[in-house]
């Protein structure tokens, strides 16, 4: 039985929370409790608690894997109890694929009866289903590949556990007619980068120019850029220490859950979610270019000149958010607010490109442009790999592709060689 109680925020607003007894841990003998807070009404807290209680009852009925499970039930068990040794960002992608695409369409299939025939029909349908995807004519190639990856991963584990004899996703084919023919813009040329950055300087928010500059000049991933803190910037050595990644997908998932529970979204109590970098090689020290060093120094001075830094979570006893490098400026109020969001970065990228008269490039393309610049500058692949934090050269080659400039330089060297031999 859930217990609902109310409490007050520092700003005087009333919020509700619930506590649920979830049984006894068989390993420790201690009582297990589930606690959630932040609801704006008694009813929203009560409704959310009832859903959790129903889930607890369901889990108690299925405490051991049953071959009678349908596909949806197994996927719930897999993502909750079996898929543990992965980054939270990866888990969020799997959850989204399961809840949004898989369960509504094939979740009721008995686990042992889902075959390659059914799976091929499911994949084909995703490509052509009306009313879904950006153009409402079916899902994209990349999205369908991701959904198939989730199912393949889960059913591989089902095979290992002996729930099914073989993985029904093995052997599935993807029709080439749905593969995008036109290659999306993956990087900017050096001139385009400079035009973009000059336009970014005109933005009302002072954070955007140095934010994108670190991606173009230092190759930071979006999550690494969002997670950067002043304590990781060494102005003496002119380097950045990359040792954390911001899980912006987890933050978006938190907002979604709050909306579904009837909560009013207020950044004053949303938490910033950090994790270790993507891979072991992602932890690295990155040298700053001269203009990146200058931009960060100017940003720090601008932040220091304002009256105060506003904490984003007054419910926390200590709020580390004031150490984040890239935060929103509220110039009229004379303060620096919450750290910028991934959604804000995507919007700024699109807006700046439009104002600069450039074709749209997604945010990840900034990092791609960094790799291309390194290769055009003649940096060897091993050093490009280390600067980007890749595990192996295969991934690096996907980024540091051959560009027209590289081809021209190669042919110029050939011409010089041929001329010297005459």
From TrEMBL:
<dbReference type="Pfam" id="PF14659">
    <property type="entry name" value="Phage_int_SAM_3"/>
</dbReference>
<comment type="similarity">
    <text>Belongs to the 'phage' integrase family.</text>
</comment>
<dbReference type="Pfam" id="PF00589">
    <property type="entry name" value="Phage_integrase"/>
</dbReference>
<protein>
    <submittedName>
        <fullName>Integrase</fullName>
    </submittedName>
</protein>
<dbReference type="InterPro" id="IPR011010">
    <property type="entry name" value="DNA_brk_join_enz"/>
</dbReference>
<dbReference type="Pfam" id="PF14657">
    <property type="entry name" value="Arm-DNA-bind_4"/>
</dbReference>
<dbReference type="InterPro" id="IPR028259">
    <property type="entry name" value="AP2-like_int_N"/>
</dbReference>
<dbReference type="InterPro" id="IPR013762">
    <property type="entry name" value="Integrase-like_cat_sf"/>
</dbReference>
<keyword id="KW-0238">DNA-binding</keyword>
<keyword id="KW-0229">DNA integration</keyword>
<feature type="domain" description="Tyr recombinase">
    <location>
        <begin position="183"/>
        <end position="412"/>
    </location>
</feature>
<dbReference type="InterPro" id="IPR002104">
    <property type="entry name" value="Integrase_catalytic"/>
</dbReference>
<dbReference type="GO" id="GO:0006310">
    <property type="term" value="P:DNA recombination"/>
</dbReference>
<dbReference type="InterPro" id="IPR050090">
    <property type="entry name" value="Tyrosine_recombinase_XerCD"/>
</dbReference>
<dbReference type="InterPro" id="IPR010998">
    <property type="entry name" value="Integrase_recombinase_N"/>
</dbReference>
<dbReference type="GO" id="GO:0003677">
    <property type="term" value="F:DNA binding"/>
</dbReference>
<dbReference type="GO" id="GO:0015074">
    <property type="term" value="P:DNA integration"/>
</dbReference>
<dbReference type="InterPro" id="IPR004107">
    <property type="entry name" value="Integrase_SAM-like_N"/>
</dbReference>
<keyword id="KW-0233">DNA recombination</keyword>
